[in-house]
Each structure stands twice: as C-alpha cells, then as structure tokens.
Amino acid sequence: MITFLRKYIFLIAPIVVFSSNAGTLLASNTNATQKIFAKLESSFNGKIGVYAINTANNEVIQYRADEYFPVQSTMKLIGVSALLQQSHAKKNLLQQTIHYTKNDLMYWHPITGKYIINGMTLESLSEAAITYSDNPAINLIMKHLGGPKAITEFAHSIGNKTFNVEHYEGNLNSNPKNTEDSSTPKDMAISVQKLTIGDDILTKSEQTKLLTWMKANTTGYKRIRAGVPGGFTVADKTGSGDYGIANDIGIVWSPSCKPIVLAIYTVNSKQTAKAREDIVASTTNLVLDEFAKHDVCFKAAY
Q1: What are the beta bridge partners of residue 252?
Q2: How far apart are CA 41 and CA 47, in angstroms?
Q3: What is the per-residue pLDDT for 301?
Q4: 92 phi-psi bin (left φ>0, alpha ψ -120 to 50, beta other)
Q5: Is 73 tagged catalytic?
Q6: 280: closest CA among 217, 223, 214?
Q7: How many whole angstroms separate alpha carbon 40 and alpha carbon 288?
Q8: What is the spatial distance between Cα 46 and Cα 40, in angstroms, rounded to a whole number?
Q9: CB hemisphere CA count around 34 (13 angstroms)
C-alpha cells in the first residue's frame, strides 16, 4: 500500500466514486483518494485520467475520465481486437501470412525485425503487437484491415465514440491539445471490459488469445503491475510517447475475486517531459485501496 501519500492535503475537482448497487453518488472535495490524485498531478506537472470498474459490484472510480488523452500504443488493443472480430467470418484468417520488407520497419520492431524473409501470420503479428508492443506489427494489421480509419470505425461500433486514430504507429499524436489519436479513459476502460470479459464482441476463444497476450506483456512491469500486491494477475497494454505519456489499460485479478478493469492515462504539458511510470503504479494502488473499502472479498484478498 502507498500509505505515505495520505498525509497530503491538496484539493482538486472531486474524484467520483459510484456504486450502482448502492444507487448513490459519493463525492467529496476532501477525501483522501482525491487529495492523493492532486498531489500526484502536481508532482509531475501533468494530468492523470482514470476510469476503473470493480466488476463484482459495478463500483466505478473516475478522475478526468471524460477528458481526451493521447492513446499512443494502447490503441493496439483496439486494432488487434478488430482483427479478431473479423476472423469470425473469415476462417483461417489468423493463419494468413503477411509478407513485408525492411521499408515497413520503424522504431521498436523486436519481433517483426526477425522475420523479414519469411513474413509472419496475422496471429503472430497480433501477439507481437500486444505482448511486445511491436510497431510494424500493428501497422501491418491496420493495413490489412483498411488503415487507421478501419480501427476507429470498429471502436465506434463497440461504443467507444471518442476513439479517433488517424495515423499509423510512428506518427501517432502525443500533444494533449490535439484530439487526433486520442480517446477518453472512460471509453477505453469500457472497451477493455467489453473486449476481454464481455459477451457480445469477441468469442471466448478469441478473448482467451487476447488475454494470454496481455498477461505476457513485456512493457508494463513498472506501471499497473507495479501497483498491485503479490499474487495478483495483470493483463495490460501500455502506451508511451512525447509529453511524458505513460498509459496503461487492462484488467487486474485478485486470487479469489472478480476482476478490476483499469484505464490510466498520464500526460505532461512539456513535450520533452520524462514519462513517469511510477505515477501509473501509484494510481493503481490508489484505485485498489478505494475498492477494498466497499468490497468484502476484495478487501480480504488485498
């Protein structure tokens, strides 16, 4: 627990905690959770966006949840999910081999850089995009689907109306004043929930693939994963960029309770700012602390 942060007394617009079971809206300008969010923001001259759902009781914690944040590589979750959905009607689609050249490579190609000669299947590209955040991998997937517009349309079709990706990886917008390549924490969290544990968009076998790749994520050790207790399971997808962007979206499981859905976005006002992964970890800890107050099962596990 990050209990040392509770000594701060900063104030900000309320963090909203909503429990659909209780049917009441709880908001306070002085509660400990919101004070810590204010301190976290002031510590790096940036903004934090949070939307978290406890699926056991539908309690929600949100903070700047309806503001636009640059999504960066968290958009890969949407792109891969669009491909998985397309595979419904196209048998053996994921086994299709995509051939590419050195011209298709750009910064961060830990997997695609190894297979230029033989190419990669769409399934292997999907795994590379999620587990290793391989940039050419998602670009090849997007090209197959019809470009950034295609994954934006997919996002809108599942209810994520604020999602707006207009560029390929390598050219994604990071400027928080620009709404290109952005979405809101609320819409991204709800999309995570629908895609990974929902019943309407992906089949159970497709969800298993997606969650397996997310659980094996190699880029998030200092973010959501760093903010959960030992023994918890995390499946996530990160995003990083200029303006100190450090994003992470995914699901957290305690050993015995229902999952927590999390979308955490952070951005700084300065283009050259350093990414603060510790802010994501601290935010995760805050959210879990708050949920533990209202969920007996989670409190015991936490």
Answers
A1: 234, 260
A2: 6
A3: 82
A4: left
A5: yes
A6: 223
A7: 16
A8: 9
A9: 17
Write out pLDDT tens, residues 155-170.
999 999 999 999 999 9
Determine the Cα angle at 38 with ends 34 and 43, to 5°.
145
Q: Give CA–CA dist 169/1, Å, rounded.
A: 36
Largest CA distance in the chain: 60
Tokens of 5: 């942060």
Cα 22 → chain centroid: 27
Query: 270: which DSSP letter?
Result: S
Give CA–CA dist 97/123, Å, rounded. 9
Task: Grade residue 32 by pLDDT with cuts at 50, 70 and 90.
Answer: confident
Alpha-carbon span 150 to 42, nearest angstrom:
38
Residue 7: other Cβ atoms inside 10 A? 10
Question: Are residues 301 and 255 in contact, defined by beta-carbon separation less than 8 angstroms?
Answer: yes
Of 153, 183, 206, the residue nearest 49 (C-alpha): 183
**Rounded distance between C-alpha atoms, residue 136 and residue 128, angstroms:** 9
Q: Which residues contact 29 (CB under 8 A, 6 or more apart)?
A: 11, 14
Q: How far is CA 75 from CA 109, 164, 183, 249, 278, in A?
A: 17, 10, 9, 10, 21
Q: Which amino acid belongs to residue 14?
A: P
Helix, coil or strand: residue 70: strand
Select from 162, 133, 144, 152 the least CA-distant residue to 86.
144
pLDDT of residue 39: 87
More confident residue, 175 or 297: 175
Kindly state the tokens that stand for 223.
């973010």
Q: Has residue 123 got a pLDDT over 70? A: yes
Question: Which of these is catalytic: 19, 28, 42, 73?
Answer: 73
With a cut of 80, say whether residue 257 has pLDDT above it: yes
Stronger pLDDT, 95 or 22, i.e. the higher one:
95
pTM higher than the cut 0.85:
yes
